[in-house]
Design a protein that fits this description.
By secondary structure, this protein is an alpha+beta fold. Helices cover about 30% and strands about 10% of the residues. The protein has three helices and three strands, in the order E-H-H-E-E-H. A three-stranded antiparallel sheet has the order 1-3-2. Helix 1 packs across helix 2. The longest helix is centred in the middle third of the chain and has 12 residues. The protein is globular. The termini are far apart.
Length: about 90
Amino acid sequence: MPDTPSSPTPASEELWTVSAVAAYLGFTGESAAGSARRQLSRWGIAAKGREPGRGGQSLHLASQVRAANEARPGRGRHGARRTEGGRFTGPTDA
């Protein structure tokens, strides 16, 4: 039987605080962390840990946040994916 790791996330996984997620997503202002929390909830991304201390923030896998953001539809392009450049025309169209 293979050994299972004692922690659910390997040490090599990059973890981001809610503030870092907010900055990555471009949220600014006093409500940036709250907006990031709501977006993470919509995507179904659960926290993988928490910073130490009373004021510690939740930690989320950076790879999950990046993947969910890449899969978002482009703004104003009727569902065009960001990975497609967010344009109606394909890469071969001129």
